[in-house]
Design brief:
The complex is a heterodimer of chains A (about 325) and B (about 230).
Chain A (H helix, E strand, L loop, with lengths): L2 H27 L10 H20 L4 H19 L6 H18 L1 H24 L10 H10 L13 H24 L6 H23 L3 H34 L6 H34 L6 H21 L6
Chain B lengths: L5 E4 L5 E4 L4 H26 L3 H24 L7 H5 L2 E5 L7 H9 L1 H5 L5 H9 L6 H6 L1 E5 L23 H13 L5 H10 L12 H15 L4
Antiparallel strand pairs in B: 1-2, 3-4
Helix pairs in contact in B: 1-2, 2-4, 8-10, 9-10
Classes of the chains: A mainly alpha (about 325), B mainly alpha (about 230).
């Protein structure tokens, strides 16, 4: 059969398939009711025919334009037929109520290691700086230390006293971009055999410990801890989770098991993506609390600590128990 | 074929050919996107000055969103490409040729941080140069590919040439070569076409000869092979 005969024989089918595909794709942008219904079984049948024709055309070395036309047609149909739809509110709800906490529990070992990597330097450096305050200068610069001290002091300039609604909003933006940026770096650092994640966890733990120890030694504990205690329920947990996800990537590269290193990495990244969704949401919540609630220093401390306790219990209970009984 | 091609087999047993985009095409696309982001960023900065604290808040959030989620939003859209990629005819697909999934798009764009190291997308550049499928680290982890969108290939025209039966039986590869020459004919200069046709002159029984007449006869054979008889 010559190329021209082949084309003449089958091109009605190709045109029909192209028309159906165009109809299905255009329908996406218009509203769903006005378009003609997609005839799925016809698309599938014509797609399989086009696949056969492409295989034949290749085997017979038909001209490039003919192959190209069939390749385009089958590729478009393939994209339409096999596309995954994991958008939508239903799947969002599923992520929140089931998949995220489950993914965290499935990575419990990584979460505990990440917790240790963050908490141990916090405690060690915290106590060191508490007993030898000059050590803070080896972690942050003198200016930064003074800035922090002033921020949490009882003076008029301190946090939450001179703040207006405008500053609250500004800080909200800052917290979002800064904290989520740190979390994403912590996750991406896992690609270097986990070393990047380990570094970011230790580093952030050390900074946090140094500042906490320093401010406590300066007698500013009351302002400082009442400020951080509520949002840290979301923020510290999310940083730990980003580190855990990063460690998972690193572990997948170092010990791929029965997969190739690349397959193992892809597999780990897919499983971790749910954790990344979840921790991003947690950090947005944390930024909101930090900007609008934590900074409100007119609130009595008992109220703040009660709410903080509630937040910590909620977060930990959510990650531990949510979604266990589903399915 | 000299082009680097990644083959993706479908469940129907056919192989889709994906043409991964190289460093230069992706660099231009990146530059284009970067300029767009810069313009949006400064345009909003100009507006934000009049809005006070809330303006600054949105400005910072916008900066954050542009930095991390600008590519994600466009890749999950219908074209599967950021404006820069679309301009240079590129798009992001999964390894198997399907549209990129949300998880993959987010993964590949968050891992930009790793690609960026140690300096100016250093690891990304090394990875793209070393690998034949031109993936950066984010693409590796997300199982995605940046591919050239296929361009239409010209049909074999030249209807004014009358068909001519080949002087001897031709194998499949020879047939394909003669037809491919005819398809390229409109894009070649007359002299180059004569040169190429002279190499294929054996198919029309004109071995060793060259010139416009030989070219016409070779193209005539191509028409015959395509299936025209009159």
């Amino acid at each position: 059969m010559t190329p021209l005969q082949f084309e003449a024989l089958y091109q009605d089918e190709w045109q029909e398939l192209a028309g159906l595909l165009k109809n299905a794709l255009d329908g996406k942008s218009q509203d769903a009711k006005s378009r003609a219904p997609i005839r799925g079984e016809r698309v599938a049948a014509l797609y399989r025919r086009a696949c056969e024709h492409l295989a034949l055309a290749r085997a017979r070395a038909y001209p490039a334009y003919l192959l190209e036309r069939l390749e385009q047609l089958t590729s478009d149909a393939h994209q339409l037929i096999y596309q995954r739809r994991d958008f939508g509110l239903a799947s969002l709800k599923r992520v929140i109520t089931i998949e995220f906490p489950r993914a965290v529990r499935a990575h419990a070992a990584y979460v505990w290691i990440a917790t240790a990597l963050l908490v141990v330097p916090t405690i060690v450096i915290g106590f060191l700086v508490y007993y030898k305050p000059e050590l803070i200068l080896s972690v942050v610069s003198a200016d930064t230390a003074a800035q922090y001290e002033q921020m949490y002091s009882d003076s008029a300039e301190s946090i939450g006293r001179t703040r207006t609604a405008d500053t609250d909003w500004m800080m909200f933006g800052f917290y979002i971009s800064h904290n989520i940026g740190i979390a994403f770096q912590c996750f991406a650092g896992g690609l270097f055999a986990g070393l990047g994640s380990i570094f970011f966890l230790l580093f952030n733990g050390a900074i946090f410990g140094a500042i906490a120890g320093y401010l406590t030694e300066r007698g500013l504990a009351a302002t400082f801890y009442s400020f951080i205690v509520t949002h840290s329920a979301f923020e510290l947990t999310a940083i730990v989770l980003s580190g855990a996800a990063g460690l998972r990537l690193g572990h997948a590269l170092l010990a791929p098991g029965r997969r190739t290193r690349l397959q193992s990495l892809v597999h780990a990244a897919t499983e971790c993506s749910v954790i990344v969704y979840g921790l991003t949401a947690m950090l947005i919540v944390a930024a909101g609390i930090e900007a609008f609630w934590s900074s409100a220093s007119w609130l009595p401390h008992p109220v703040k600590y009660s709410v903080a306790a509630g937040c910590w219990i909620t977060v930990l209970a959510y990650l531990t128990f949510q979604g266990r009984s589903a399915d | 074929m000299l082009d680097s091609v990644v083959a993706a087999e479908t469940p129907e047993g056919i192989v889709l050919e994906l043409r991964p985009a190289g460093l230069s095409a992706r660099f231009y696309a990146f530059l284009f996107d970067w300029l767009i982001r810069l313009v949006v960023f400064y345009a909003f900065a100009f507006v934000a000055r009049f809005l006070g604290g809330i303006g600054v808040a949105f400005w910072i959030i916008l900066f954050f969103a542009l930095e991390w989620f600008y590519p994600v939003v466009f890749e999950l859209g219908r074209s599967g490409a950021t404006p820069g990629k679309r301009t240079f005819g590129l798009k992001v697909v999964m390894d198997n040729g399907l549209p990129v999934t949300p998880a993959a798009s987010i993964t590949r764009n968050l891992l930009r941080v790793a690609d960026f190291l140690p300096l100016g997308y250093g690891f990304a550049i090394i990875s793209m140069l070393v690998r034949s499928d031109c993936k950066r680290l984010g693409d590796l982890a997300a199982a995605t590919l940046v591919v050239h969108q296929s361009k239409p290939v010209p049909r074999v025209v030249l209807d004014m040439v009358s068909p001519l039966a080949p002087a001897r039986p031709l194998g499949q590869r020879d047939q394909a070569a003669v037809i491919a020459l005819a398809a390229r004919a409109p894009t070649l200069s007359v002299e180059r076409l004569d040169e190429l046709a002279a190499m294929a002159a054996a198919v029309s029984g004109d071995e060793g000869k060259s010139g416009p007449d030989v070219t016409r006869r070779v193209l005539g054979v191509a028409q015959w092979l395509m299936g025209r008889r009159t």
